[in-house]
Specification:
- The complex is a heterodimer.
- By secondary structure, chain A is mainly beta.
- Helices cover about 0% and strands about 45% of the residues of chain A.
- In chain A, the strands form two sheets. In chain A, strands 1, 3, 4, 7, 8 and 9 form a six-stranded mixed sheet that branches. In chain A, strands 2-6-5 form a three-stranded antiparallel sheet, with no helix packed on it.
- By secondary structure, chain B is mainly beta.
- In chain B, strands 2, 4, 5, 6, 9, 10 and 11 form a seven-stranded mixed sheet that branches. In chain B, strands 1-3-8-7 form a four-stranded antiparallel sheet, with no helix packed on it.
- In chain B, strand 9 and strand 10 form a beta hairpin.
- Classes of the chains: A mainly beta, B mainly beta.
- Chains A and B meet through strand 3, strand 7 and strand 8 of A and strand 5 and strand 10 of B.
Chain lengths: ~110, ~120
C-alpha cells in the first residue's frame, strides 16, 4: 500500500501547459484503467476532475486531460489559469485494498 | 441537494475512541459503496476504509486494520467510522466519500470533513 509518486510541485505561466506525473506499479496504475485525479483548494474537500484515466466529469473544463502509459499516469492542464493554482492528487484502484492515492502536487501559476 | 455531512470529530487522548458519522442526502444512499479518506495536517490524502452498499464487503488500510470499523445504516442514510486505540498519527481531517455507481472506481462526491485530533 505505498502511495503513488507525484512531483512535489510544478509551475507554469498563464496560458502555458503543465503535466503532473503519477507513478505506481503493475498492481495499481499499470494494472487497471481506473486512475482518477482530484483538485483540492486549501481547506476544501477534494473535487473529481478526471476518472477512468482520461474521462472528464460534467462541468470540468476541457483544458484538464489525463493519460496513462505503463505504470505512470499523467494529468495535463492546458492554458493554465490563475484559479488552477492549488493541489492535485491522483488515485488508482489497487485491487485488494482497493484504493491508493498519490503524494500530491502543488501547481503554481507564475 | 446532493451532499455528505460529517460529524463526530474532536480532541481525544491516545488510546481513546471516537465515532464519526456521515449523513447523506439528495441521493439513494443504499445503492452506493461509501468510503472514508483522511488527510493529516499539511499532508496528502490517504484512503482509510470502504463499505459496499449492503455492507457485504468492508476493506481497511493496513494503518487502521484491527482498530477502525466501518459501518452504515441505509434506513438512516448514514455512514459511520468507529475508531479505537487512537494514535497521534491518526490526527487528520476525515472525509466521507461516495464511490461512483456501477463498476467504477473513483469518488464522485465528498463531504467537507471533520477534524480528529489525537493528543495528550
Amino acid at each position: 500500500q505505498s502511495a503513488l509518486t507525484q512531483p512535489r510541485s510544478v509551475s507554469g505561466s498563464p496560458g502555458q501547459s503543465v503535466t503532473i506525473s503519477c507513478t505506481g506499479t503493475s498492481s495499481d496504475v499499470g494494472g487497471y484503467n481506473y486512475v482518477s485525479w482530484y483538485q483540492q483548494h486549501p481547506g476544501k474537500a477534494p473535487k473529481l476532475i478526471i476518472y477512468d484515466v482520461s474521462k472528464r466529469p460534467s462541468g470540468v473544463p476541457d483544458r484538464f486531460s489525463g493519460s496513462k502509459s505503463g505504470n505512470t499516469a499523467s494529468l495535463t492542464i492546458s492554458g493554465l489559469q490563475a484559479e488552477d493554482e492549488t493541489d492535485y492528487y491522483c488515485c488508482s484502484y489497487a485491487g485488494t485494498y482497493p484504493y491508493v492515492f498519490g503524494t500530491g502536487t502543488k501547481v503554481t501559476v507564475l | 441537494e446532493v451532499q455528505l455531512v460529517e460529524s463526530g470529530g474532536g480532541l481525544v487522548k491516545p488510546g481513546g475512541s471516537l465515532r464519526l458519522s456521515c449523513a447523506a442526502s439528495g441521493f439513494t444512499f443504499s445503492t452506493y459503496s461509501m468510503d472514508w479518506v483522511r488527510q493529516a495536517p499539511g499532508k496528502g490524502l490517504e484512503w482509510v476504509s470502504s463499505i459496499s452498499s449492503t455492507s457485504s464487503y468492508m476493506f481497511y488500510a493496513d494503518s487502521v486494520k484491527g482498530r477502525f470499523t466501518i459501518s452504515r445504516d441505509n434506513a438512516k442514510n448514514s455512514l459511520f467510522l468507529q475508531m479505537n486505540s487512537l494514535r497521534d498519527e491518526d490526527t487528520a481531517v476525515y472525509y466521507c466519500a461516495r464511490e461512483s455507481s456501477g463498476a467504477n472506481w473513483y469518488f464522485d462526491l465528498w463531504g467537507r470533513g471533520t477534524l480528529v485530533t489525537v493528543s495528550s
